């Protein structure tokens, strides 16, 4: 879906959206909660070797575990022992390969999509497709192509199998005022593509954002103290349990997530194609087919919209001050019909990881922690050059 447009995108989007309702996410939450226990155990054992941990790698393993559990319906074991040869880690690294050639393909696809497709270029290599094909057809077969009661995305997608097609509206309906419907055939390939999409769109984005949150909280002791207090109070209210309600119950923690996404939007630029000729209020004509690149990072770091933009100040996203944010100047999840479908899902692994970590530890920077980051220019998403090393100190 991420790389499609037109009717194909619209039908998939309409049929995937209900899978991200509060009810469905709440049903799935127990799978994330299991991963929070695994990260707690993993950290206990890691800290026996050293209390300085590279958090990008830690969060990549944890997020892989969450996504594997919810999207593929399997335990990936990425937080287990001897994980260097874990096939999920290898595939994750391949998807986010940051070679110059991949960087070139990303730019080419955004700027000249017709040339990209006429050269039959592909974003992902054949072995990635093969790995997921084998993995998921096994999962489908084990479940006999029916819901298993696990409430994960595989279950939700297998509901599509009850009919041979999924149906949705044509994109042209909005313009022509018609009500024409479009069908997409549901076969294994269709189901597998959706799982791979959710993995590719959800894994790196969520893992990197959570590492940036930890980095900023390690640098800003006052903010960390406030977060820890909010987390302690949460645990008191919920008898020490991590529950679905945690996602929206801690306003300061939420503000820290928002402020981190302002400083480090996962996609620095998003692209739209003009669907119909349109004249802006300034008189500028946008011709049909023109590609518009929206500079999210630039806007979020613009002093006009965010005073002292380099400063980490979660208060921008709290109470009355939040109302000062001008519409469309803050777009970490995009906006409009193509905005991120996984925004609410992403909060589950992020908040859960923070709850699990701050229950047991305070964090500090070390001499290896950079003061600021240069970003990897060839990566799909915003990624720091190098690791993020932080010191974990037991709270007990
Ligand atoms: C911190 C985490 C995340 C961030 C910052 C993020 C950000 C974004 C952004 C900026 C877009 C493009 C929106 C646009 O063009 O307007 C996007 C699209 C998308 N995201 Fe996310 N995302 C995150 C996590 C996730 C997760 C966990 C999932 C799925 C489980 C997901 C699934 C998708 C999909 C499927 C699209 C394509 C939507 C479409 O084309 O209709 N994302 N995301």
Helices and strands in order:
Blueprint: H1 6-16, H2 22-49, E1 52-54, H3 55-72, H4 87-95, H5 100-111, H6 113-118, H7 126-142, H8 153-158, E2 165-169, H9 173-176, E3 181-185, H10 188-219, H11 221-237, H12 246-249, H13 251-263, E4 270-273, E5 278-279, E6 285-286, E7 291-294, H14 296-300, H15 343-360, E8 361-365, E9 389-394
Antiparallel strand pairs: 1-9, 2-3, 4-7, 5-6, 8-9
Bound molecules: protoporphyrin IX containing FE.
Protoporphyrin IX containing FE binds next to helix 10 and helix 15.
Binding site for heme: 340
Pfam family, one: p450
Keywords: Endoplasmic reticulum, Heme, Iron, Membrane, Metal-binding, Microsome, Monooxygenase, Oxidoreductase
Structural class: mainly alpha
Could you tell me the radius of gyration in angstroms?
22 Å
**Beta-strand residue percentage:** 5-15%
Provide the list of bound ligands, each named once.
Answer: protoporphyrin IX containing FE
Shape: globular
CATH structural architecture: Orthogonal Bundle
Question: Spans with pLDDT under 50 lasting ≥5 residues?
Answer: none
Sheet with most strands: strand arrangement: 1-9-8
User: Count the helices. How many?
Assistant: 15
> What is the fold-level CATH name, i.e. the topology?
Cytochrome p450
Overview of the molecule:
- With 396 residues, the chain is mostly helical.
- The protein has one domain (6-394): Orthogonal Bundle (Cytochrome p450).
- 51% of the residues lie in helices and 9% in strands.
- The protein has 15 helices and nine strands.
- The strands form four sheets. It has a three-stranded antiparallel β-sheet.
- Helix 10 crosses helix 15.
- The longest helix is centred in the middle third of the chain and has 32 residues, at 188-219.
- The chain is globular.
- The mean pLDDT is 90.
- Bound molecules: protoporphyrin IX containing FE (HEM).
- Protoporphyrin IX containing FE is lined by residues 1-2, 13, 197-198, 201-202, 205-206, 209, 261, 266-267, 270, 332-335, 338-342, 345-346.
């Amino acid at each position: 879906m991420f790389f499609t447009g037109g009717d194909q995108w619209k039908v998939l989007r309409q049929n995937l959206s209900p899978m991200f309702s509060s009810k469905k996410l709440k049903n799935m939450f127990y799978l994330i909660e299991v991963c929070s226990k695994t990260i707690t155990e993993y950290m206990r054992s890691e800290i026996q070797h050293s209390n300085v941990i590279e958090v990008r790698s830690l969060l990549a393993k944890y997020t892989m575990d969450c996504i594997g559990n919810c999207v593929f319906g399997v335990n990936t074991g990425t937080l287990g022992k001897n994980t260097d040869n874990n096939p999920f880690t290898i595939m994750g690294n391949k998807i986010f390969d940051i070679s110059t050639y991949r960087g070139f393909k990303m730019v080419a696809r955004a700027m000249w999509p017709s040339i990209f497709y006429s050269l039959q270029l592909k974003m992902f290599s054949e072995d990635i497709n093969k790995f997921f094909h084998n993995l998921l057809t096994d999962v489908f077969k084990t479940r006999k192509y029916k819901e298993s009661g696990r409430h994960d995305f595989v279950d939700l997608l297998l509901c599509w199998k009850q009919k041979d097609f999924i149906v949705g509206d044509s994109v042209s309906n909005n313009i022509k005022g018609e009500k024409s419907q479009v069908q997409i055939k549901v076969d294994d390939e269709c189901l597998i593509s959706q799982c791979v999409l959710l993995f590719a769109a959800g894994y790196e984005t969520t893992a990197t954002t959570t590492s940036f949150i930890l980095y900023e909280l390690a640098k800003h002791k006052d903010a960390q103290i406030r977060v820890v207090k909010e987390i302690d109070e949460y645990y008191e209210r919920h008898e020490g349990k991590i529950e679905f309600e945690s996602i929206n119950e801690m306003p300061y923690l939420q503000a820290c997530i928002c402020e981190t996404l302002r400083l480090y939007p996962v996609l620095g630029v998003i692209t739209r194609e003009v669907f119909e000729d349109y004249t802006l209020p300034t008189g500028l004509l946008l011709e049909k087919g023109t590609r518009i690149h929206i500079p999210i990072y630039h806007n979020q770091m613009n002093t006009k919209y965010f005073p002292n933009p380099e400063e980490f100040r979660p208060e921008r996203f709290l109470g009355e001050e939040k109302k000062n944010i001008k519409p469309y100047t803050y777009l970490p999840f995009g906006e409009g019909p193509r905005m991120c479908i996984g925004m609410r899902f992403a909060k589950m692994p992020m908040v859960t990881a923070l709850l699990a970590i701050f229950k047991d530890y305070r964090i500090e920077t070390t001499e290896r922690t950079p003061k600021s980051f240069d970003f990897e220019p060839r990566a799909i998403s915003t990624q720091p050059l190098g690791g993020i090393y932080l010191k974990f100190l037991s709270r007990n």
